[in-house]
Amino acid sequence: MIAKEEFHSAIMLERKRTERTRKPFLLMLVDMGGRSPFEKAELALSGFTGEADVTGWYKNYSVLGAIFRDFEPDDRNTILGAMMTKVSDTLRQNLSEHQFSEMQISFHLFPEEWNH
Fold first, then answer.
1. Mean pLDDT across the stretch 22-33?
2. Is residue 36 very low, low, confident or very high in pLDDT (cuts 50, 70, 90)?
3. Bridge partner residues of 65 (DSSP)
4. Per-residue pLDDT at 11 exceeds 50
5. Distance from C-alpha of 21 to C-alpha of 99, rounded to nearest angstrom
6. How many CB atoms lie within 10 A of CB 5?
7. Looking at the DSSP assignment, which residues form a beta bridge with residue 107?
8. Residue 105's domain is classified under what CATH number?
9. How many whole angstroms separate alpha carbon 60 and alpha carbon 64?
10. SS3 49
11. What is the DSSP letter of 38?
């Protein structure tokens, strides 16, 4: 898990790479609102990120982020649905229902326009 400044730098580098190569990446943000046990969430999320993925703090101790690379941009909805299911299932296994319900998970796909 990298620090906020490093994670924001990684996002900027990925955006530049995407602009150059047109290979997409997915940014996932898990907002815990400062109430959920971020150590457990951090551990849970690290269980499904790969070596090419980057995880870090988007906002210190309240929003975790993950950058997912190296996937085929076949269908935006399929990718987002599969990731949401995987993340939700992993977090539900590691957190109480109350802790999970306090979280907000968002996905941001780059580039935003896949066909251009």
1. 87
2. low
3. 29, 56
4. yes
5. 39
6. 11
7. 28
8. 3.30.70.2880
9. 8
10. coil
11. H
Q: What is the pLDDT of residues 56-90, one digit of tens each?
A: 999 988 898 999 887 666 677 788 888 889 888 88
Amino acid identity of residue 33, one-letter, is: G
Query: Looking at the predicted structure, is the pLDDT value of residue 116 above 80?
Result: no
Residue numbers of the domain that contains 34: 4-110
CA distance 104 to 116: 30
Tell me if 115 is assigned to some domain. Answer: no
55 three-class SS:
strand
Shortest CA distance to 45 belongs to which of 99, 16, 83? 83
Number of domains in the chain: 1
pLDDT at 14 over 90: yes
Element containing residue 90 per DSSP (H, E): helix 76-94
pTM as predicted:
0.85
Q: Is residue 9 part of a domain?
A: yes
